[in-house]
Amino acid sequence: MTAATTVHTEFVIERELPATPARVFRAWTTPEAKRRWFVCHDGMVNTGYELDFRPGGHELNRVRRPDGVEHLFQARFFDIVPDRRIIYGYHMQVGEQRLSVSLATVEFEPGGAGTRLRFTEQVAFLDGYHDREARIRGTAEGLDRLALLLHEAERAH
Q: What is the pLDDT of residues 13-71, one digit of tens each?
């Protein structure tokens, strides 16, 4: 049996996005939009998505890697300020192993050519798993997909 260990860390990722704070916020709060960008690696297939976006509401995202292993993200929303802030807690599981429990804060500020997004995550990695760099990389890839989605929508207008 793996020892019960906890490793704490935190990280911040910032992005300048080509849309208003209201449009960026909607990309986080609309199930159809979020499902399009909320995957961290190419080749993953979404096998289940739910979004109940309200304080006390939840989000569930199941994706399957090409080798068949399932990744599970389950979140609960704690604080929502439209077009300004989202705070949620979530846990991440791969196969049968729970990897982490996190508190995430997403802030939307007018700036530059659209919106300055600041994503802050406080993580408790569990039971021997503590790949901070992989978490940062996966989160950054998702935010890059968000930027691409917003950029494509902006070009279509």
A: 999 999 999 999 999 999 999 988 887 666 788 889 999 999 999 999 999 989 999 99
Task: Tell me the C-alpha to C-alpha distance, in Å, between residue 129 and each of 109, 112, 113, 132.
Answer: 33, 38, 39, 9
pLDDT tens per residue, range 127-155 = 999 999 999 998 999 999 999 999 887 77
- 62 and 49 Cβ atoms separated by less than 8 Å: yes
Asked if residues 130 and 119 have their Cβ atoms less than 8 Å apart, the reply is no
* Top-level class of domain 6-40+79-156: alpha beta
Supply the pTM of this predicted model.
0.91
In this structure, are residues 51 and 62 in contact, taking their beta carbons and an 8 Å threshold?
Answer: no
CB atoms within 10 A of CB 77: 20
Q: What are the extents of the domains in the chain?
A: 6-40+79-156
List Cβ neighbours of 73 (8 Å cut-off, separation of 6 or more).
59, 60, 61, 62, 90, 91, 92
Tell me how far apart the alpha carbons of residues 56 and 1 are, in angstroms, rounded to a whole number. 34
Q: Of the candidates 51, 121, 127, which has an alpha carbon nearest to the alpha carbon of residue 94? A: 127
DSSP code for 132: H
